[in-house]
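Give me the fold.
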Amino acid sequence: MSALLRLASAALLMAVVTGMAGAQNLRIGLNSDPDALDPTTSRTVAARVVFAALCDKLIDIDEKLQLVPQLATEWAWSADGKSLTFKLRPGVKFQDGEPLDAMAVKYSLERHLTMPGSNRKNELGPLRNIEAVDNTTVRLDLAEPFSPLVAVLADRAGMIVSPKSAQSLGDKFSEHPVCAGAFKFAERVAQDRIVVERFQDYWNAGNVHFDRVTYFPIPDAAVRAANLRAGGLDIAETLQPTDVPTLKGDPRVRLETGASLASVYIVINTSNGERSKTPLGQSAKVRQALEAAIDRNLLNQVVFDGAFVPGNQSVPPGNPYYIKSLPVPPRDIANARTLLKEAPGAAVNGRRGRFRSGTHRGGGHDNPQPVGQGRFRGAHHPLERPRRSRRQPLQLQCLRWQLERQQVLQSPG
């Protein structure tokens, strides 16, 4: 088990070259190379960006974070909250020409539940049975009520793959994914590019305005920004706060900003092995004292150039799901001293711990990132931290801390 100490919600920053509307090939710079292009096994945010073109979902999320129809036109819970029924959009085709119907939805959801290596199984919670009621109606039966299910189906768990292609390709499906999105897979060159092309039979083809989209994995944010300004990219996502002044000063570039769903936080080990047996891991009062000693606003200004939003919940202040009765706490050194005095044993001298920060996604945590190195998030569903390429060793810069009780109690605040 672990405790989470939320520090800030990352800001969403995407830079777009102005005057690109006439381009037939949209070029997007990603902050990492996506992992497997299979909705069942994928776990990176970079893959999410590509999936937005390749794979439609049962439900989508609009710019106001409202759940809206996509492959499903409507849905309803049963009175006991243990069944969820969807009506599917008629006439939808997969990119291999096969029809998307209730049996295809049943196949995809069962694939999430049973396929070895699935990263969707845990996200689907108590889902126990999928019933194709008729050609355009699907009912999901649960062992117990599970209200997050609708939101879960607005992400990769709700992406429907072609049963024909998935069965024929087997474990090679991720090399040529076939879904029901606006663009079909064309080419992938590892560490270089992913290319998708317009799917002519897409159900919403009138709202597709490019013939091709090419994604370029460019891990270095400064290089992405430079390529954007040089005309090599049309869109660059996940940019650093330090690049903002330069990009704002370039008349050819337009910045799109806003608070994202990503967050930077400290994970505290409370019960996992010997390393949890520290005052911080065992005492809630010590953890509360640590939180009271943190100045989120100062961290935001010094570490993130003021670009992030200080926060204390999984969503930022101003989000419709933010709990206003639990606002961001201010720094309170006096309260921290009091809490340390009250902590069991009250012996914190010389103890050391390691903090790692990361982002949370449904179903688990991705690779941790260094405290103080927050990232701007992508444009679609910025809920997770990208997985590092095997060619790029993960370098953790752990923040060491030392709580020395007498120094804390005697410090002038």
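The longest strand covers residues 253-269.
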